[in-house]
């Protein structure tokens, strides 16, 4: 058949028959220690026996003692060691030399449902299922018998005359003891012991068999049972399975064996297994075990050469910054729908209490346990666990934070420190509502000290410089806040979508009054979310470049999807190199509308639609300079009439406007711009659940 030919002609049809005459008694013997060219067909078989339940077979095969390859002296020595010098019926070798060999079987597989023996005759294939597959290997039980003979001879020589020990012993009291009832655990151990298994195997009696050679008349008679005896057409059934189902019947999937891994102590972490995990899982596992760690120590535990920027992105997803050190997030340590091991308190309540403890450590080095317990009102065991994670008790100072403030990290990564500070402001606002307190209640009061009698000129100059620096920083911060307006500071770590989490630490849900990172968010009343808003000329070249490249790749995008892609793009930029500082939803939408290559598609969603407002804002690639642009424009026009259409409607509209349109062009158009569901086509991102 030619390689380029798509046809697959049928060369020959073969009838397949299932023979059942030997289905429960057909075994396949394998001899793995002997080449296939050296068979035992012409060797004399002295005896054969089987234990059917265990599928255990033993064969006795004679050895050619007159062969030039046979060492007669060694054979006689082995027989002497096994049987000794005497002769009786229990001797293994009656000829006073090793003249036979025993083969014992082991099961090659316990499940033979996938295996069968097949014979082909006159264009018919006859298949018989196998009962077992046995591997025949030489048995060396005669060595055990020789070893026992040696021990008996040594015991007889050392025993000597024991007539002196045969004196009648005096009568002694006998204490009768009754064994305790066997527990279930002890019974299971006994059943699984090697001694018990050996005893059970020995209980099944051997069934002695008669061996018939391959070329014998009885063997030829039995081989006829490999062919199906009944070929009645009424018993035949037509195969109605699909090719996939038939292949699954021929080769069913293997059941995966569950490997029980040894359970180690909960406080032991295998670094070898840790290195096999993805970077995010490595960071999460380390933080769950250590609870609090400096960033430099975390980098030291990871593999050499790990990118610190990637580690920074991962650590911000599972930990929060406290005094320059990273502390595992409460919702990671106490997942949803779990409970306290001490008191049974739900995880959401534990997260609130632990977040309060961590927040207090962002304000001061030490806290008092009684004060914490009086506010969060949790059992003492849980409060102690919170503190033990991040602090240590100190005499007359309460609980002090475990690690010194990592000033180097804060100086090296000011953008990360600022972002974490904004997160803590959001957490603080939630805690104030839950526990009904004010931050001023916990700000440490400076004790009043009398002014010194004499202040030198250098001291006055230093104090004046400090006051000037404080005033400048305050003015600079106010100026930045005023300039920022309604901009949104884009986070570089993923934001949790769960809004019902009581202690979600993501910025979008934790900053009060609809603000994000201190600025009005796209969901606040101050932000214009209406369609057709006039775009302001605020899109930077970098933002416009991102928009154009994204639309050339995805063709049709909702505003919500574009925001997600933009967040991923910002997160992929190394820390400190981002040119996107404050990009709002409005600015992102303006960048689309300002681009001459993209336009909004006014999709008429039904009034009862469950789509979010940003999912109802759909934009498409309009102008690329290629002829295929007119296909996309016609498609967009079709979707301005209905938010879901059938393929024939799209095909008819294209044929009406452009004439004959090939199937390849229609497929390309639908794959680029649409998604299919239940026989209908939707623009990307607009399928209703």
Automatic annotation (TrEMBL):
GO terms for biological process: tRNA transcription by RNA polymerase III. It comes from the Eukaryota. Residues 146-171, 460-538 are annotated as: Disordered. One of its GO terms (cellular component) is RNA polymerase III complex. Residues 146-156 have a biased composition (Basic and acidic residues). Residues 444-689 form the DNA-directed RNA polymerase III subunit RPC5 C-terminal domain. Residues 505-524 have a biased composition (Polar residues). This is DNA-directed RNA polymerase III subunit RPC5 C-terminal domain-containing protein. The lineage of its organism: Eukaryota, Metazoa, Chordata, Craniata, Vertebrata.
């Amino acid at each position: 058949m030619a390689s380029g030919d798509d046809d697959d002609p049928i060369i020959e049809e073969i009838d397949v028959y299932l023979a059942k005459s030997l289905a429960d008694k057909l075994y396949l013997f394998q001899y793995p220690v002997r080449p296939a060219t050296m068979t035992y067909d012409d060797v004399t078989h002295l005896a054969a026996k089987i234990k059917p339940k265990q599928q255990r077979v033993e064969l006795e095969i004679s050895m050619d003692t007159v062969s030039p390859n046979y060492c007669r002296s060694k054979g006689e020595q082995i027989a002497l060691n096994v049987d000794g010098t005497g002769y009786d019926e229990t001797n293994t070798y009656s000829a006073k030399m090793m003249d036979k060999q025993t083969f014992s079987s082991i099961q090659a597989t316990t499940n033979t449902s996938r295996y069968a023996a097949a014979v082909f005759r006159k264009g018919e294939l006859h298949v018989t299922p196998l009962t077992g597959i046995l591997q025949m290997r030489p048995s060396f039980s005669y060595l055990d018998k020789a070893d026992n003979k040696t021990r008996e001879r040594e015991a007889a020589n050392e025993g000597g005359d024991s007539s002196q020990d045969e004196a009648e012993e005096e009568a002694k009291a006998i204490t009768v003891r009754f064994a305790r009832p066997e527990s279930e655990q002890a019974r299971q151990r006994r059943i699984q012991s090697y001694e018990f298994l050996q005893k059970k195997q020995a209980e099944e009696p051997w069934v002695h068999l008669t061996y018939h050679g391959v070329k014998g008349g009885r063997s030829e008679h039995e081989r006829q049972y490999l062919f199906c005896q009944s070929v009645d057409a009424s018993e035949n059934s037509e195969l109605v399975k699909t090719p996939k189902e038939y292949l699954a019947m021929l080769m069913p999937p293997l059941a995966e064996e569950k490997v029980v891994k040894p359970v180690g102590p909960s406080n032991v972490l295998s670094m070898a297994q840790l290195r096999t995990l993805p970077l995010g899982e490595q960071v999460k596992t380390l933080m769950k075990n250590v609870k609090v760690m400096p960033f430099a120590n975390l980098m030291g535990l990871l593999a050499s050469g790990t990118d610190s920027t990637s580690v920074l992105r991962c650590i911000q997803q599972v930990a929060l910054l406290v005094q320059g050190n990273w502390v595992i997030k409460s919702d990671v340590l106490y997942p949803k729908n779990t409970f306290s091991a001490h008191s049974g308190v739900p995880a959401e309540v534990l997260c609130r209490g632990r977040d309060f403890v961590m927040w207090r450590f962002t304000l001061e080095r030490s806290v008092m346990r009684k004060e914490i317990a009086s506010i969060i009102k949790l059992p003492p065991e849980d409060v102690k666990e919170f503190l033990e994670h991040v602090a240590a008790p100190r005499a007359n100072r309460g609980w002090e934070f475990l690690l010194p403030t990592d000033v180097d990290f804060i100086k090296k990564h000011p953008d990360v420190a600022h972002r974490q500070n904004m997160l803590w402001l959001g957490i603080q606002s939630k805690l104030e509502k839950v526990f009904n307190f004010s931050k001023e209640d916990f700000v440490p009061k400076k004790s009043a000290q009398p002014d010194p009698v004499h202040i030198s000129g250098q001291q006055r100059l230093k104090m004046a410089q400090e006051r000037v620096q404080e005033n400048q920083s305050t003015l600079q911060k106010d100026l930045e806040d005023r300039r920022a307006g309604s901009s949104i500071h884009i986070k570089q770590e993923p934001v949790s979508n769960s809004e019902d989490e009581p202690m979600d630490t993501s910025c979008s849900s934790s900053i009060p009054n609809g603000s994000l990172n201190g600025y009005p968010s796209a969901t606040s009343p101050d932000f214009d979310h209406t369609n057709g808003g006039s775009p302001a000329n605020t899109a930077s070249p970098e933002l416009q470049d991102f928009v154009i490249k994204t639309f050339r790749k995805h063709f049709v995008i909702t505003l919500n999807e574009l925001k997600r892609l933009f967040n991923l793009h910002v997160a992929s930029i190394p820390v400190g190199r981002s040119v996107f500082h404050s990009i709002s939803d409005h600015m992102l939408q303006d960048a689309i509308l300002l681009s001459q290559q993209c336009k909004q598609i006014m999709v008429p969603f039904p009034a009862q639609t469950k789509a979010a407002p940003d999912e109802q804002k759909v934009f498409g690639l309009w102008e690329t300079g290629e002829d295929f642009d007119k296909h996309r424009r016609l498609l967009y026009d079709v979707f301005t009439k209905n938010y879901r259409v059938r393929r024939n409607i799209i095909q008819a509209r294209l044929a009406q406007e452009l004439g004959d349109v090939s199937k390849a062009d229609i497929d390309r158009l639908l794959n680029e711009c649409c998604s299919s569901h239940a026989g209908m086509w939707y623009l990307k991102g607009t399928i209703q659940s």
